[in-house]
Amino acid sequence: MYSSPCVLTPTSVTRQVVYMTIPSINVYLPPEAHDLGFDSFYELNYRSHMGPVRLVEKFGLEESGIVQGKFNVWRYSHCDVSMGIRDLKVLRPFAIPVPVSNIISLECIISGGSDLELCGHERPDTGMPRAYLASHPENSHITRIFKAGDRVRSAGLFIPPALLVDEFGLDLEKCPPAIQNIIKLKGERTTTLPLTGRLLNMLDELIDMPFAGMRAERYMEAKILEWLCLLCELLTAPEQEFKDDNPLSNKKAQAIKQVVGILNNNIAAPPGPDELALQVGLSRTSLAHAFKSSFGITMSGYLLQRRMDLARQLLRSGKQSILQVSLTVGYEDQSAFGRAYKKFFDHSPKEDLPR
To answer: 105: domain CATH number?
Structure first.
């Protein structure tokens, strides 16, 4: 999407964007601060028991009129987990490209947010609470695009893929196949997760942390451990966790759980929105709002994501032709499937066939 790490005007954005990397903002930082990776930057700026590194203060983002508020990063060295916390108002548009390799990312957006380029696919800001879990093999990247006027309240983790299994007892056999593929780093993959009530409460407490220094470190350690425990519970049965602990009413939460099951089990020929609403006992409008407010995407967007993820998995297995895959995921016209696939992944289905 962007051609160089500098001030530029992307074709999709008419305003100038400060192209920013962590830890460098090329326009504002002294030359010696450029070109540092996150590890080197963190080691250079972190001191024992100082709490999170405060990027807004470090880079003078408020004084430069770019943002107001909080943008902190911290690493829990015991688990080698890195965390970012954002509670800010964007005054001038900017983008943050983050190169990543052999890592899992979890992005939890409570309100506002930014457009994301994740696994080669754009995840536009919906303004709704949402969470994205993604796998990043060698030489991957994430880009966050912040627009002027955005109010962002979110937190994210970078997690070593073996950590959840080795240190938190995640049983991959109990996870849905899409989750297993992410944990195993089988290519660049992403899935949308519900933000449960417990997760939302924990994230609010983390973002609003009242401590500094050593007490902040101890508090963040506890919260990261809690976060990872809640994540493991969610990954083993996301629909069930969604039903048991979601800020929606019990009726709507049960309805959304049922809809997710119906869509997952009928990827090729799902019921239409009117029939879905009738099956779960909600109006079409109420169902659509409840689904989007919980997953951050529409039902059709969720279905498309599941179809494309399954299609790529089948193509890479080499067991089906492109035509067979298109039929399996609900496209009778191979050309229509090819166009949808290229729009989603930015390359043709043929490129995902085994060499």
So the answer is: 2.60.120.10
Do residue 37 and residue 54 come from a single domain? yes
Number of domains the chain contains: 3
- Which residues of the chain have a pLDDT value below 70? 1-37, 113-114, 119-122, 124-129, 239-247, 296
Q: Is 148 helix (H, G, I), strand (E, B) or coil?
A: coil
Q: Is residue 12 a part of any domain in this protein?
A: no
DSSP secondary structure letters along 205-225 = HHHT----HHHHHHHHHHHHH
Burial of 285 (0-12, 13-18, 19+ CB in 10 A): exposed
**Whole-number Å distance between alpha carbons of 38 and 41:** 5
At 3 the pLDDT is 25
From CA 324, how far away is CA 337, in angstroms rounded?
11
Same domain (yes/no): 344, 204: no
- Structural domain for 253, as ranges: 248-296
Q: Are residues 153 and 220 in the same domain?
A: yes
CATH number of the domain enclosing 273: 1.10.10
The model's pTM is: 0.72
Residue 80 lies in a domain: yes
**E strand intervals along 189-316:** 189-193
CB under 8 Å to 196, separation ≥6 — which residues?
Answer: 230, 234, 241, 242, 244, 245, 246
Roughly what angle, to the nearest 10 degrees, separates helices 250-265 and 284-295?
80
pLDDT at 18: 47
**318-330 confidence digits (pLDDT tens):** 999 999 999 999 9
Rounded CA separation 168/329 (Å): 34
Residues 199 and 331 in one domain: no
Evaluate whether residue 5 is within a structural domain.
no
Residues 6+ apart with CB under 8 A from 239: 257, 260, 261
* pLDDT for the residue 127: 57
The pLDDT of residue 126:
58
